[in-house]
Write a structure and sequence with these properties.
The protein is α/β, with parallel strands linked by helices and 353 residues long. 41% of the residues lie in helices and 18% in strands. Helix 7 packs across helix 8 and helix 11 crosses helix 12.
Length: 353
């Protein structure tokens, strides 16, 4: 991992009929963003020039055909394809979905080969991306196959961090996926992520129960007694500061989440409904647990407002910020891990001043 200067942020363009291209261009209209990083968008400069004209964006695009041609201080667009693409904002189009995957696959390959430092993904549509070559529910599942590690969806907004035991799983199948081993793995991943990626020395983690009232001592379900509590105790005894299982409604209702560095929900809506309510459109989806850094905005393609110039770029900009923060934190963490004695000496010097 290289030093902090000139961090290269790869961006997959997502569904071009959605709001992804709009929020990407709006994000980098702010020249200060180009002082923090060098963006490279995996798409086609002609189609993005069309989008730029549509939204009267002030962004200046720099088209390149090879990654080694990118220029710091510019919004680089790597031409992943050359042919024109017909756009119809707000429409689901299988051909446009195929280009979203071309962009994403190329950006992922560049991430694996360390041609880019971090990856930020614009939203895709899960219906029009399916093909013989791509049979994944979304970004995370593909990244989990391509990169080392075990992925975990972690939603982030300031100090609120919500992870999931299961993500894109139908509600009636959630319990089939839950095992003590899975619960332990996810808790350990969150704990490691908080230390390595968020620079929290001794994180506190809360786990939500699966059932209403966390099962009410077995009256409304026994998963908390049979799986959650024993696993949490075992990990706590090993030194991980993990607590629960807590009833989800009261936990968020009385602001208990403010006492913890992360919260782990049992399933998608249990975690994301309160998260999106509290994050006010500025949340970020971070793929924890992988060797590489990937973030995305916490919203979808928003076809209902696509092409109207109404999209808020706040969540995408926060996704870029978080990717950069995690990159810095990992550098610091790896330096500390390599030479802990040197870090202790520096800390002692600081304390003696």
């Amino acid at each position: 991992m290289k030093k902090n200067e000139n961090i290269i942020v790869g961006i997959s363009i997502g569904d071009l009929n959605g709001i992804g291209s709009e929020v990407v261009l709006k994000t980098f209209e702010d020249a200060r963003m180009l002082e923090l990083c060098t963006p490279v968008i995996f798409a086609n400069v002609k189609i993005l020039s069309f989008v730029k004209k549509t939204f009267e964006s002030t962004s200046t695009l720099h088209g390149i055909d090879h990654i080694n041609q990118l220029i710091p201080g510019k919004i680089n667009v790597l031409n992943v394809w050359k042919e024109p693409v017909d756009l119809n904002f707000g429409q689901i189009d299988d051909k446009v979905g195929a280009y979203a995957i071309k962009s994403f696959a190329a950006a992922t390959a560049a991430l694996k080969e360390e041609q880019i430092d971090v990856l930020v993904t614009a939203p895709i549509n899960k219906y029009n991306i399916q093909s013989d070559d791509f049979k994944f529910p979304g970004h995370t599942d593909y990244l989990n196959q391509q990169l080392k590690g075990d992925s975990l969806m972690l939603m982030v907004h300031d100090r609120l961090r919500v992870g999931l035991l299961t993500d894109h799983v139908p509600v009636n199948e959630v319990v089939k996926h839950l095992t003590p081993a899975l619960i332990a793995q996810k808790i350990e991943t969150i704990n490691r992520t908080l230390i390595q990626d968020f620079a929290i020395t001794r994180p506190k983690i809360a786990v939500l129960g699966l059932n209403p009232h966390s099962g009410d001592n077995g009256v409304i379900g026994k998963e908390e007694i049979e799986m959650f509590s024993p696993t949490i105790k075992e990990l706590f005894d090993k030194g991980i500061m993990v607590f629960g299982p807590f009833p989800a409604d009261g936990f968020f209702g009385n602001q208990q989440y403010e006492k913890y560095d992360a919260v782990i929900a049992a399933y998608h809506d249990q975690g994301l409904v309160p998260f999106k309510t509290l994050s006010f459109g500025k949340g970020v989806n971070y793929t924890a647990g992988l060797e590489k850094i990937r973030t995305s905005p916490d919203h979808g393609t928003a076809f209902d407002i696509a092409g109207k110039g109404q999209a808020d770029s706040g969540s995408f900009k926060e996704a870029v910020y978080l990717a950069l923060d995690v990159f810095h934190n990992r550098i610091q963490h790896f330096e500390i891990s390599k030479n802990p004695m040197k870090v202790r000496e520096k800390q002692a010097e600081k304390n003696n001043r």
